[in-house]
Design a protein that fits this description.
Elements: H1 2-8, H2 11-17, H3 22-36, E1 41-44, E2 47-50, H4 52-80, E3 85-91, H5 100-109, E4 114-120, H6 123-130, E5 136-140, E6 150-158, E7 160-164, E8 187-190, H7 203-206, E9 213-216, H8 219-227, E10 233-236, H9 237-246, E11 250-252, E12 261-268, H10 274-283
Parallel strand pairs: 3-4, 3-5, 8-9
Antiparallel strand pairs: 1-2, 5-12, 6-12, 7-10, 7-11
Helix pairs in contact: 1-2, 2-3
Length: about 280
């Protein structure tokens, strides 16, 4: 209820969101304030705004509710060995199509288990497991130095391709290109999705440290930007094979060569859920 009032800005809007009459919400808040001996809301214009005490109650209350949900989930898992839900984070280097056949096979035998898929970039993939946003990450790249208490297994190797629009000035430049050859051209980079870990920089991003950049949130956006000829950069070969074949992007040799990089499956050490273990085994090469 407090969360709804905070998000909606008024008791009436919160009541509508909760399918309750406004008087019931007002009474509940007044009763809670009376029981606690504190004021939880104050008026700012037409909005109902949490007091500092109300903010503490809401934020720590959310943590308690999350802990209660995890306790219920753990209890069910201990009873059956199978999680009722599983959160999987996919690194932006990969496409959902790569996971679709495995999901289809899982759902054939376990249609009742809920799967949540999210997308992360660089350190955000590791952070998702560390902070509990994900039970399993598929495609995590360079391991951050602070990542402890985690297990990992190689998933695949990603081959990097320096690609440009066919009408970009670099498309007709002598190859192999050296760093100075493209230093004057805008590069497009994908931002790290970490919320608390220090942002990571991949080996391909470090090449562009001295030039203007266009920042995007996903690899799909990066591909679109390079297809439009707005910037240059390295892309995973498996994501742009169709564009290369159709001539929408042109592959250019560079020196030094960017070596293929391993992508990993990552999960918390000690996790024993059967659904998690199923996906680990199915996705392992």
């Amino acid at each position: 209820m407090l969360d709804a009032i905070d998000r909606k800005g008024s008791f009436a809007a919160a009541a509508a969101a909760l399918y309750r009459v406004p008087s019931a919400v007002t009474y509940s808040v007044q009763k809670l304030e009376e029981d606690l001996g504190v004021s939880l809301f104050k008026k700012e214009g037409r909005r109902s705004v949490l007091t500092p005490a109300g903010r503490v109650l809401l934020e720590q209350g959310r943590e308690i509710l999350d802990a209660a949900e995890r306790l219920v989930e753990t209890t069910r898992q201990v009873h059956s060995g199978w999680e009722s839900q599983l959160n999987i984070a996919l690194d932006s280097l990969l496409e959902i199509e790569q996971l679709a056949p495995v999901l289809e096979a899982f759902y054939r035998d376990h249609p009742e288990i809920e799967i949540t898929l999210t997308e992360e970039v660089l350190g955000g993939a590791w952070e998702a497991v560390i902070e509990g946003r994900a039970d399993l990450v598929v495609g995590a790249a360079e391991r951050p130095p602070t990542a402890t208490g985690l297990s990992s297994r190689e998933f695949m190797q990603v081959e990097w391709v320096f690609a440009v629009h066919p009408e970009h000035p670099l498309a007709t430049a002598p190859t192999p290109l050296r760093r100075d050859d493209f230093a004057d051209y805008r590069a497009v980079v994908v931002m790290d999705s970490s919320r608390s870990l220090p942002p990571q920089t991949s080996q391909t991003l470090r090449i562009f440290e001295r030039q203007a950049v266009l920042r995007v949130e996903t690899v799909q956006q990066k591909i679109a930007v390079q297809e439009a000829g707005l910037a240059v950069g390295f892309l995973p070969r498996h994501r742009i094979e169709a564009q290369l074949a159709a001539g929408k992007l042109v592959e250019l040799a560079v020196d030094p060569v960017v070596e293929p990089a391993p992508l990993q499956l990552v999960w918390k050490s000690g996790s024993r859920g059967r659904a998690l273990r199923w996906f680990i085994e199915e996705l392992s090469p």
